[in-house]
């Protein structure tokens, strides 16, 4: 786990450095670099769509046709799901607000307003950190684990994958704030 974290962090660091260095040519990338970034981004989006699709498929398959091994009911017997109107609702509000703030910052950037760009990105990072903390609390106070039937697996895989995306996105935005 530690080696994977170190390699991922190193890869991100070198990638940010290379993209930043390549962009210093008059402030623009070459056509070849732009084409490579576009293709890379497209492949990234396709892979992300399939990753989330597979997790949603597992959830819907298991919840709409519960197996006899889990009692034929969803959620399985003995599992108490989280109240969707508690932390999950607050996290949804935080993420929607965070999206609004990053959009605000993006529009401010397009209009050349540096102060509002920074404000929008700072609020986005704040809300993303709050989301991550609340997701940690949700995991810590959960009455089930990833090993508690397909419900636990589907819950922790889907929310974990989403949480990792929020963390990585937060890192990307922090790097942009520092630049």
UniProtKB/TrEMBL annotation:
TM regions (residue ranges): 39-60, 85-105, 117-137, 149-175
| InterPro entries the record matches | Cyt_c/ubiquinol_Oxase_su3, Cyt_c_oxase_su3_dom, Cyt_c_oxidase-like_su3, Cyt_c_oxidase_su3-like_sf, Cyt_c_oxidase_su3_a-hlx
Question: Any idea which UniProt keywords this protein has?
Answer: Membrane, Mitochondrion, Translocase, Transmembrane, Transmembrane helix
Give the way it sits in the membrane.
Answer: Multi-pass membrane protein
Gene Ontology cellular-component terms for this entry are: membrane; mitochondrion
Q: Which residues form the Heme-copper oxidase subunit III family profile domain?
A: 1-179
Question: What is one Gene Ontology biological process annotated in the Swiss-Prot or TrEMBL record?
Answer: mitochondrial electron transport, cytochrome c to oxygen
Q: MF terms per GO, please? A: cytochrome-c oxidase activity
Source organism, top-level taxon: Eukaryota
Compartments in which it is found: Membrane
Classification via Pfam families:
COX3 (PF00510)
Primary localisation category:
membrane
Cross-referenced PANTHER family: CYTOCHROME C OXIDASE SUBUNIT 3, CYTOCHROME C OXIDASE SUBUNIT III
Tell me the protein family, please: Belongs to the cytochrome c oxidase subunit 3 family.
Q: What does this protein do?
A: Component of the cytochrome c oxidase, the last enzyme in the mitochondrial electron transport chain which drives oxidative phosphorylation. The respiratory chain contains 3 multisubunit complexes succinate dehydrogenase (complex II, CII), ubiquinol-cytochrome c oxidoreductase (cytochrome b-c1 complex, complex III, CIII) and cytochrome c oxidase (complex IV, CIV), that cooperate to transfer electrons derived from NADH and succinate to molecular oxygen, creating an electrochemical gradient over the inner membrane that drives transmembrane transport and the ATP synthase.
- State the protein's name: Cytochrome c oxidase subunit 3
